Amino acid sequence: MPHAFRIFSSAVDARRVRRPTDVVLLILALLSIIGLAFAAPGPTALDSSVTAVLGSLPGVAGWLWELSYGLLVVWAAALAIIVLAHRGHRRIFGDLVLAAALALGSAVLAGWVAGTSVSDSIRALLTPGPPAVYLETRIALVTAIVVVASPHLSRPLRYVGRGILAMGAAASVALGVALPIGAVAGFVIGVGCAAIAHLILGSPGGRPSAAQVTVALGDLGVEVTQVVESLHQVTGVAMFDASTPSGEQLLVKVYGKDAWDGQLLTSTWTALQTRGETPRLGTSALARVEHEAVVTLLAERGGVPVLPVLAVGRSAEGDAVLVSQATGTALRQLDPDQLDDAVLASAWRALAGLHDLGISHGSVDGDRIIVRADNTPALADLAEAQLAADTDAQLTDRARLLVTLALVVGHERAVASAGAVIGAEGLAAVLPFLQPAVLDRSTRRAVRQGDWSLDDLSAAAVSVAGVEPPELQKIQRVTVRSTLTVVLIAVLAYYIISKLANVDFASIVDELSSANFWWLLAALLVSPMVQVSLSFSTLGAAMAALRYWPVLMLQYAIQFTALVLPASAARVALEIRFFQRYGLAAAAAVSIGVVDSVSGFTVQIALILIIVLSGLPGLTSTTTSTTTSSSSDSSTPSLILVAIAIAVLGAVITAVVPKLRNRARETIPRIRAALRDQAVAARGALTVLRHPAKVGQMLGGNLGAQLLQAIILGLCLAAFGETAYLSQLILINTAVSLFAGMMPVPGGMGVAEAGYTAGLQAIGVPSAIAISTAIAFRLVTFYLPPLWGAFAMRWLRRHSYV
Known about the structure:
With 802 residues, this protein is mainly alpha-helical. It folds into 4 domains: 20-201, no CATH class; 210-325, Phosphorylase Kinase, domain 1 (2-Layer Sandwich); 332-465, Transferase(Phosphotransferase), domain 1 (Orthogonal Bundle); 480-620 and 634-798, no CATH class. It has 30 helices and 12 strands. The chain has a 5-stranded antiparallel sheet with strand order 1-2-3-5-4, with helices on both faces. A 3-stranded antiparallel sheet has the order 6-8-9, covered by helices on one side. Strand 8 and strand 9 (377-379) form a beta hairpin. Helix 22 (567-580) packs across helix 23. Residues 275-279 and 625-640 have low confidence and may be disordered.
């Protein structure tokens, strides 16, 4: 019988796993500690401000800070006592010791690198009080213990631990033990070390035990005689099979209050990876079971064969529970000889009935089609169902059903059953959606292991539908010749820019050789985060249910193709192919790219206007130099002219060279036809503008990318001993990106370099440093990213996303 207050989230024998989110936490911790190291040991201006605010609080805060700081040790000791007092959970004590040892060693090492002696670090751990140290050892130690214990504990205890950590960190600053930067660094070290411990030892998922589920069912008035874990499990929910005294079989879905899948980072990762781009992160567990119950009830009232919901609600311990009938056998478990054509036709009619109600299923597969005792199929698990579903969502359902049936009875019988029910026209509409990207991971794996391919299935469907197979957009390949051409253009562009800036090439080499390596490394590490932000913009521009990871790989692959194509052309060509893999027409894919690009353009214009009109430091302000270089002998007008000249030169070469001229002439009719098709598709793509969340994703993603690029530009500038206001960096980067993106030159090559140099000169950066900074910035944001972009392109090809 479970306790009235649940201490541990999982049963004693709960299985431990190593989670991708711990890898994410470790990477974020490493990047954070590297970034903090540049400002260590402080104090920074922010440190002084925060310390002053805490010091100005009323006198009563004195004993409060001492109490809070002491509670850090008390809570760490309490966690150790709790796990040692419970025989079955004593193994957790090893986790706490490992995390604490890693945190102590890492904190002392990081402090020593920043200039804090080992004795001072140990003193800060044992005795509260000044002088302030970098980094805060006690915070690092307790954070590691609290974070490593969190998956094992119930949610209330997790919240208590986090609250004590927050108060303890503030207390360490108020008592003079550490500066804010040291407290933050201690927290980051602790999180990273806890992630390492989880990756070494694993962690439980906080899933309820069968005994707890039995009690929860009793709270809902459902009497059962047996509860066991289902063989089929879904990420984010615990599935159980139960039996009633009358012998009726039940399926129980439990969204545990303490489930680790419900935590913010874990649920975000799961949503981005497996649940599409509408993850319902802000939806409570109770709302999710209520949604499934309502959809199931609507389908049942509409005559659609489903497994009825018997009970739904929240247990006394706070778990959200849904109970439904489980009479029948999953389709994938049946022998093909047991399934006659009438069963296949009934499955198609059941899905059609659901679509007639305006509902899409959202997760059709062999486990969610149940063949009941009377040999009739029923639709199960409507948790991902969508009300008022659009045509694409319904066609995706049909494509998944066709593949599901083909996996059981063969592709020829599956296509024949589809043609008999939805007809040739309906089957033709499904063809563009017969793509690996439309299928879930387990179905894709089953297709790869089968004796037929999706191409075989598509060919059979084409034959029955009597139509031409849909063609995919061709992608221009990156070749050795195109790469050498890029290198030649880059060398020529830098030579011209250096001459126009009146800077000797040797001076540029000297500046580059004297650059601070660590600042450049920081810029290189931050550079991939630009695509992380842009991926959210692409997710927001499309109504299709996309997964985040393939979209991120798309963004990196665009950097690879930008070597041979102008940035906008590379993006459009690759995005068309990518979205076609999700079943969208080429014109609709172009419209999505246009919406995404327009949102980026809107953000760029808004940033420029805000900086210019608000009085923030812009191109008329000067920088603060930490070098002994002389003032700039700016040749900004010349460099602006050369940027325009490069664009004009490209147009002239196109007009003079017959091969290029003929290619441009042949392209014009295709562009006109594409624009006509796009005008029709754009009306559908623009529906995203009716969804505030989508608009927010697009604007937020593009805004984040612009800010990150400005930060990278600042890091590159700092490598040469110069600093600038963030508003100046944003203005320069945004203006150059806006202008270079319009040029018919791969990656804006030459144009971007000239623009960045001119912009930096305009704010007072010496010419040699301006050119060197432009080279460094372009190196980490354009010339080096194709290295990992090539791996991303290979990944997309291997998984049939392009």
